[in-house]
Amino acid sequence: MQKVLIITYYWPPAGGPGVQRWLKFVKYLSNFDIEPIVFIPKNPHYPLYDESLVTEVPKELRIIKQSIFEPYGFASFLSKKKTERISSGIIQEYKKQSFLERMLLWVRGNLFIPDARKYWVGPSVQKISRLIREEQIGTIITTGPPHSVHLIGKRIKESSKINWLADFRDPWTSIGYHKKLKLTKASQRKHKALEKQVLTMADTIVVTSETTRLEFEELTQRPISVITNGYDGNPLNSSLDTGFTLSHIGSLLTERNPKTLWEAIGELVRENEAFKESLKVQLIGVVGEGVLESIKAYGITDYVEILGYLPHSKVLEYQCKSQVLLLLEIDSEETRGIIPGKLFEYLKSQRPIWAIGPKNWEAGQMVQTHNAGNYVTQNDTKSIKTLLLEGFQQFQKGKLTCNSKGIEQYHRRELTKKLANLLTWESS
Predict the structure, then answer these.
(1) How far is the C-alpha of 180 from the C-alpha of 199, rounded, in Å?
(2) Which fold has domain 244-396?
């Protein structure tokens, strides 16, 4: 059985879609004659925790840990709340940032390149190098962000003949929050140089969207494969909510604030008494202050329920009970290739998905391709209002359903098969 070492920062009890991606790959890899070994930090600083995911870790899985030093501990003495927010990728609008927050962002962007987990690289390389020799491991996998994990792969590749697969769950220098780190020109050049080194040294690159693949093809001649995120298991047998529930699952940060959606909901609440009586919007996950302010400004606070971060098992229940699932993204060029991990869980639930995001958004186009719901651009208030009204009318008639097709390819088992084929090719 082929041994593969997976190097990842995020692992249960950490929460979030990045954890689930490799947790599920590990679950199925042994079906393809591959023995996964997982390398993780011993004392990490996770922004989100989900203890329920610990139960999904295979009992036979070998997990190796290496201590990590993270400067967030020192920064939290200045402001624990601001430090945790930045660590989570939540960056407020410039005008709302305090001097301390701006300072922390500058330090994060310019002194910790590529990120604040850079101090894990050196000791991890030493430990993994010994492990490779002792265990005769032929392949390593690095997954980021944090992209400092890829630097572990780079250092090991420089000193050995190991096969290296670099998995990019998100882009590196082109992701939206990268521009908000107050980078100097020298820091920008360093980020881009490290990105290019990783992309040209890795034997194989895996990305989660076609847009990212096309972007990376401009930087490297290495083979690039798209393996999206996915879903596992079957939908729960849950009765639908009796009200007209619109649910968004996952972080809804200020930058992703769908003001046109709140505006359209506000208008219908004032114009349509039946809509007003049935409506409930559920936001499950971290919600930005700007989002809350917009909800209040459009007069719909009474119709919105903030549930906060919930365990993954609980999230699945809400998905299957909701009348409509909201898929929301920032309206910008940089987000066209972002395919949120929740999309695949949404697909599994067999509930209508309403995607509201940028023009030519890959995730929105997938919703349409699989006949799983509707896709409108975020600045199209008229279409959003029509979508709300028509969806409500279907709900009243008991005909608000989803008849998606071709989603079996996103089952975690099928996605792991694609990964296993890459690993088998590498080792041959």
Answers:
(1) 23
(2) Rossmann fold (3.40.50)
